Amino acid sequence: MNLGQQRGFTLIELMVVLVIIGIASAAVGLSIKPDPLKLLRQDGERLVQLLQLAQTEARSDGRPITWRWDAKGFGFSRRADRGAELDRFKDDPQLRPRHWQSPSMEVRVEPRQRVVLNAEWIGEPLQIRLSDGQNSLTVQRSAAGRVQLQ
């Protein structure tokens, strides 16, 4: 065993390892970049599913269901079985009132009207434009009642 020779890494080997670690961490950092449309898209997809569900419920029950919204969230309502009071689906796991996931939400319905889902199979088409102030998506309902995100 020769005591004059020491085992270890050279400066160049250490620098190569550090460069590789730097490149890998930069790649990971770029891939984690948040999608600015993520929350808005989630709100739109959830609204599409719930509008379809409410339409199915209105057709099976025979009572119209109204979709209402504000900047904080949205919900569904219909006339109760008896009386003039409204059923706001507070105990319903699917149609219960919900908050928007986007921090600031603007909603525009075209044509400007209340969104009422009724037992009819053919209805007036409409568009619901969701905007978080920077990005926007459109939920579209066809005359046949098909709801989709665009």
TrEMBL record:
Localization per record:
Cell inner membrane
Quote the Gene3D superfamilies the UniProt record gives.
minor pseudopilin epsh domain
Q: Which InterPro entries match?
A: N_methyl_site, Pilin-like, T2SS_GspH, T2SS_protein-GspH, TypeII_GspH
GO CC field: plasma membrane; type II protein secretion system complex
Question: What membrane topology is given?
Answer: Single-pass membrane protein
Supply the PROSITE patterns for this chain. PROKAR_NTER_METHYL
| Keyword Cell membrane carried by entry | yes
Pfam families assigned to the protein according to its UniProt record, in alphabetical order? GspH (PF12019), N_methyl (PF07963)
The parts of the chain that form a coiled coil are none
Looking at the UniProt entry, the stretches that span the membrane are 12-32
Question: Is-annotated flag, keyword tRNA-binding?
Answer: no
Tell me which UniProt keywords the record has, alphabetically.
Cell inner membrane, Cell membrane, Membrane, Methylation, Transmembrane, Transmembrane helix
Q: What is its main location?
A: membrane
Q: What is this protein's record name?
A: Type II secretion system protein H
Q: What organism does the UniProt record list as the source?
A: Pseudomonas thivervalensis
Which gene is transcribed and translated to give this protein?
gspH
